[in-house]
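[recover] target loaded
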């Protein structure tokens, strides 16, 4: 009888193990799907949140003109007033500190043979600034924290650090972006540039061209056309396809044809300076800049971002929360800086830290202007788009919610990782959810209200 009992015991244990494993897998699937199910219950269409008469201008012609003038001033600041946001000495001080900290505490990077001494010597701050020239991007390119291509990741062994955030990625710059070069590396491969977005970083020298006064005067003396759809092919006069569009690309207009605009892009000549090249934009995905500021226009354009994958710092040409807001409002002539904190400071900021969750949502619903009000929490920015049945909703590009697993560690099942429409308390009913956005909201910003 003992052999039979022994076999039964082993079989029973095996069955219990299998059952427990299946339960865990099923629970995991349910937990994983719960967030998606909650998102899918919300209409993923910004137009659903519009009220009546939302195609009328949301701002007066006077304010629209002021917004346009401010955009032009800030966008062309690298050519006209490069130290509008930060002076030359403070930039050097920042990089002195960056290099000192980087030398003392090297981060986890993909290439373990990467030498911090080599990076420091290549930057050679002793010669800063060694190159003061105005420039323009001749193709879409990365803006890097340090002059290296290799990515830098957090310590994957630490909680919350095992996600694809490249710490060396600062931003992704479109074609035709004005720059001011402060410094070039010893190997002449990278240039330290001031951008139009209140941020500084390193760009590959091959991705920009120098500009002179004649180029600048001619470039700025045009009406501009803005791209309103991503990944649309742009052809030159010979039918060649030199680039794909990105929402927010700005092009000087040459001629307005029946089905297309003939516009300019910057190219590089043999001396390293910019020259004009003509290309054609299909009118189906480009318009005269700026677009009329109506909530319907903003909602329609915002729909073109829905479902696009999240990309920290614009890595791989993707967008994060703040670059999504930046790209959305550029076609309307509303300038936004690079990061979420700076964007929250752009308009009229209303602090919400001292209110309960219920009070925060009530204030946002009562005073927020749908599609023109940003909602800010530390490290994230959202666009308030309106309410349904007394509940506030936002359009945004989040990475994750903080959901704990059974061991108390961050769970990958909390990842959203794309542009979506959610409630402000998305995930509230999920088991082991650590927080919801509503709890962490610190304020909201009116982009055009009381604009001076």
């Amino acid at each position: 009888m003992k052999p039979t009992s022994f076999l039964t015991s082993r079989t029973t244990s095996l069955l219990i193990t299998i059952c427990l494993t299946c339960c865990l897998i099923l629970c995991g699937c349910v937990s994983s799907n719960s967030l998606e199910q909650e998102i899918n219950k919300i209409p993923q269409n910004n137009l659903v949140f519009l009220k009546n008469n939302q195609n009328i201008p949301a701002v007066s012609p006077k304010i629209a003109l002021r917004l346009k003038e401010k955009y032009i001033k800030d966008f062309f600041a690298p050519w006209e007033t490069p130290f509008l946001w930060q002076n030359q000495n403070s930039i050097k001080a920042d990089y002195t500190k960056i290099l000192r900290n980087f030398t003392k505490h090297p981060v986890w990077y993909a290439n373990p043979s990467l030498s911090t001494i080599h990076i420091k010597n290549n930057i050679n701050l002793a010669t800063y600034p060694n190159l003061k020239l105005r420039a323009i991007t001749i193709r879409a390119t990365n803006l890097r924290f340090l002059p290296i291509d290799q990515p830098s990741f957090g310590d994957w062994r630490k909680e919350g650090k095992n996600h694809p955030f490249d710490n060396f990625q600062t931003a992704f710059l479109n074609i035709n972006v004005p720059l001011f070069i402060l410094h070039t590396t010893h190997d002449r491969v990278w240039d330290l540039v001031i951008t139009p977005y209140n941020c500084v970083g390193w760009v590959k020298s091959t991705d920009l061209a120098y500009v002179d006064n004649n180029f600048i005067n001619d470039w700025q003396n045009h009406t501009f056309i803005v791209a309103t759809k991503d990944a649309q092919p742009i052809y030159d006069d010979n039918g060649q396809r030199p680039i794909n569009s990105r929402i927010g690309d700005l092009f000087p207009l040459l001629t307005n044809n029946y089905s297309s605009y003939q516009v300019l892009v910057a190219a590089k000549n043999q001396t390293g300076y910019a020259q004009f090249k003509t290309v054609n934009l299909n009118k189906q995905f480009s318009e005269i800049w700026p677009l009329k500021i109506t909530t319907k226009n903003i909602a329609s354009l915002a729909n073109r971002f829905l479902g696009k994958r999240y990309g920290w710092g614009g890595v791989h040409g993707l967008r994060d929360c703040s670059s999504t807001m930046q790209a959305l409002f550029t076609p309307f002539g509303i300038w936004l800086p690079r990061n979420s904190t700076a964007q929250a400071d752009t308009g009229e900021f209303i602090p919400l830290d001292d209110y309960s969750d219920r009070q925060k949502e009530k204030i946002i619903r009562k005073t927020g202007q749908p599609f023109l009000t940003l909602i800010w929490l530390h490290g994230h920015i959202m666009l308030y788009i309106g309410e349904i049945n007394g509940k506030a909703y936002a359009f945004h590009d989040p990475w994750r919610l903080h959901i704990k697993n059974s061991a108390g560690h961050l769970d990958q099942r909390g990842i959203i990782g794309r542009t979506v429409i959610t409630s402000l308390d998305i995930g509230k009913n999920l088991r082991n959810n650590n927080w919801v956005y509503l709890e962490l909201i610190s304020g909201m910003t009116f982009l055009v209200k009381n604009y001076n």
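[recover] notes: Residues 1-31 have pLDDT under 50 and may be disordered.
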